[in-house]
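ligand=N,N,N-trimethyl-histidine
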Amino acid sequence: MRVLTPAPPAPLPSSEAGAFAADLHAALRGTPRQISPKYFYDTAGSALFDAICELPEYYPTRTEHQILQACGRDMAAHIGTSVELIEFGAGSCVKVQALLDHLGPDLRYCPIDISGEHLALSTARLARRYPGIEICPVVADYTAALSLPDAGSRRRVGFFPGSTLGNFTPDEALQFLRHAARLLRGGALLIGVDLIKHPDRLHAAYNDRQGITAAFNKNLLQRANQELGSNFEPDQFDHSAFYNAPLQRIEMHLVSRRPQTIELQQQRYTFEQGQTLHTENSYKFTIDGLRHLAAQAGWQAGTVWTDPEELFSLHWLIAP
Ligand code: AVJ
């Protein structure tokens, strides 16, 4: 009989590192091998994502920003006054400023983010810029059950920009929208989603010429090496990103360049040449598709704002 000794503590013991380790083991044991894209965003990964947003080929962030700038006043009119504005996954609290610029001081802004440190920094900056508004940061995973400040007589309005919904499977997206509809009952949700377009345009956005997206993808392996002491060789994996048209999603994978064995906390995992670790899905929507999905989750679809090329869309959804 072989007795397995427990793995030694990870270099950075935290519940996040624990979850990463457990999810990475599960991914490497699975068929196909697949892990949540949320693990992209350590400090290095977040900086790489910021660099992606500046790339000429990566249109989503720029286009959403343009729509927010052009239509922020109209969106603010939809939001109205005496509101508790809740942002899901607020990060740097940059996008919301296009709304805050047109909203009065009778507002409570509740940014939700998993990183307390990041949130503290960005809300301090926001408080200086918008001294009139009340800011109530909430450190939490917004996909889980959460307790929000009592809205009192305020109407709740959600803000979920960035096509983050696209990281969920259709089933998870439906669940999230149902969860949000309960949380925001009597209020509304302003949600940004990327739209289906020519595959060449999609392909270019996830295969940039400078290789930043490839570095972002491979950073997952670097992060595992740093935090969990694994021995991935990022150069022995290729970045692969392609549009899966029937499933309406970009898929990102890390493809093993050769047969290789990696070690993660005393467990060995073999990769055949060409075997992949599926690191992200980024679903694309039609305007009607998003409206139907929202309706299935109990929302009443309202105004849609888009750019002239219809690359990206923001939707006003009402929670009856
Ligand atoms: C942050 C999920 C919207 O899917 O386009 C960018 C992440 N991945 N390039 C996206 C991402 C590769 C991004 N989202």
